[in-house]
Amino acid sequence: MGTLKPITGAQAAAEAMRQINPDVVVAYPITPQTPIVEQFASFVADGIVDTETIPVESEHSALSATVGASAAGARAMCATSSQGLALMWEIVAAVPGLRLPIVMPLVNRALSAPINIHCDHSDVMGTLTIGWIQIFCENAQEVYEHMLLALRLAEDEKVLLPVMVNQDGFITSHAVEPVKIYDDEIVKKFIGERKLNRYLLDVDHPFTIGPLALPDYYFEIKKQQEDAINAAMSVYLEVGSELSKITGNNYPYFEEYKTSDAEAVIIALNSSAGTIKDVVDEMRDEGKKVGAIKPILFRPFPYAEIREALRNIPAIGVFDRSIAFGAYAPLYSEIRNALYDLQNRPKIQSYIYGLGGRDIFKSEIRSCFNELLCGKVDPNIQRYIGLRG
Amino acid sequence: MNNKRSYKELERGTVLPPATSLEYKTGGWKVSKPVFDPGKCTHCMICVVFCPDMAIPVSEREEGVHGKDGRIFKGLVRLETNFDYCKGCGICAVECPTGAIKMVREGV
């Protein structure tokens, strides 16, 4: 069931979009997201999908047109990276409030300045407070499968919120891997059609979308939005268990890798988690009890579940591929928050790595594990991996 | 606030019936309201002209109305402020030459 294809993470996102066959796709090319729309545009040109693509002059217009199409009732998608996300920001913030189920692959790239095209997570980390569901992917296979999951999650009646599906710029988006693409017929059945109870061009039943809401109603509307993203916690698992009937894979909030007896655990997002798991295997062979955790669903954040997973781990290292200037790093901050309710809290260390696409090496990860294993942990300082000191 | 709907009752995504701005009463924005004392009014129309929200209605009264010092004012007279649209800016109270309008804090 399914075919192995040698494709990149960007093409994996495009493959998912081919099977989703959205009514409208509006995206503006930006490195390293470009190959997603490039590949998808060829599907359109070859008549493989029924999608209407709209050429626009910027990302602000791209997401605006996507919003218009989605509000009209279409299944509409967009895709972007870094500066593109920054340029469409005004609309990015409006989508969750409008409760539009737009799925947008985000290929993570460092934010300017200085200008840089390589991977870090500074683009997505800026969006965490505005209401998009955030899913992170380690490799091309996860990109493909999480795109399918994201669509069903976004369109679920209890949720109706947009989802960003993150992958690492170049590392995942441009590296070719074998990706198992499941049969079109089975995936299309899983995806289904968007269910709507209203149509924009129904003149007999007109409505207003996106009205003014001042101090008397804005607050209530935001509370609704908060309830919706919290509802996404259980819907994520429901949709995931349905998808696993097709793929045989599981869709937990986060992946726990050899953590049950671990004395030190490193937590990291996206592709670096793969490298860390490799180091875990090597060190386990040497008899060292180390493990890894890879968060997948980052918004809403599974605080209680992370807390239970970390309860008995003596030392934890948290790897952030972005700085939260003047504050704890984004992932570290969440993990630290999750541990607050424990009586006996694990030791926890914040590490910053890989900004602007700087490589991280297995030897560096190994050094971090060794620090954690011998208790060289200070929760009040940030350590930097691969920074010239 | 009590007649307004809770977050559990609202349409999601702020999808509303069309043309609801007609039902929107901007008078809800005010903090202070103008209290009009007809016994001091000369119906000079200054407040009516200055009101930025056209919230002071007027009417032709052949029989006249009682005004300042018990006098009868005939013809065009001002009526009570329309509180659905008065935003409480206080311009009328500042401009009134006879001190017939006082701003009072609402809900106090």
Q: What does this molecule look like?
A:
The complex is a heterodimer of chains A (389) and B (108). Chain A is of the alpha/beta class and 389 residues long. Chain A has two domains: 3-247, 3-Layer(aba) Sandwich (Rossmann fold), CATH 3.40.50; 254-385, Rossmann fold. Chain A is built from 13 helices and 16 strands. The radius of gyration of chain A is 21 Å and the shape is globular. The mean pLDDT of chain A is 96. By secondary structure, chain B is mainly beta. Chain B has a single domain (29-105), classed as Alpha-Beta Plaits (2-Layer Sandwich), CATH 3.30.70. Chain B contains two helices and five strands. A two-stranded antiparallel ribbon of chain B has the order 2-5. Chain B has a two-stranded antiparallel sheet with strand order 3-4. In chain B, strand 3 and strand 4 form a beta hairpin. The model of chain B has no long low-confidence stretch (mean pLDDT 91). Chain A binds chain B through residues 97-100, 160, 198, 206-214, 216-217, 219-221, 223-224, 227-228, and chain B through 1, 4-7, 10, 12-21, 28-29. Strand 9 of chain A pairs antiparallel with strand 1 (15-16) of chain B, so a sheet runs across the interface.
Q: How is this fold's topology laid out?
A:
The complex is a heterodimer of chains A (389) and B (108).
Chain A: E1 3-7, H1 9-20, E2 24-25, H2 34-45, E3 52-53, H3 59-72, E4 76-77, H4 82-87, H5 89-98, E5 103-108, H6 122-125, E6 133-136, H7 140-155, E7 163-168, E8 177-181, H8 184-191, E9 208-209, H9 218-247, E10 254-257, E11 264-267, H10 272-285, E12 290-295, E13 297-299, H11 303-310, E14 315-320, H12 330-339, E15 347-353, H13 362-373, E16 382-385
Parallel strand pairs in A: 2-3, 2-4, 5-7, 6-7, 11-12, 11-14, 14-15, 15-16
Antiparallel strand pairs in A: 1-8, 6-13, 10-12
Helix pairs in contact in A: 1-2, 1-7, 3-5, 7-9, 10-13, 11-12
Chain B: E1 15-16, E2 32-36, H1 46-50, E3 58-66, E4 72-78, H2 91-95, E5 101-105
Antiparallel strand pairs in B: 2-5, 3-4
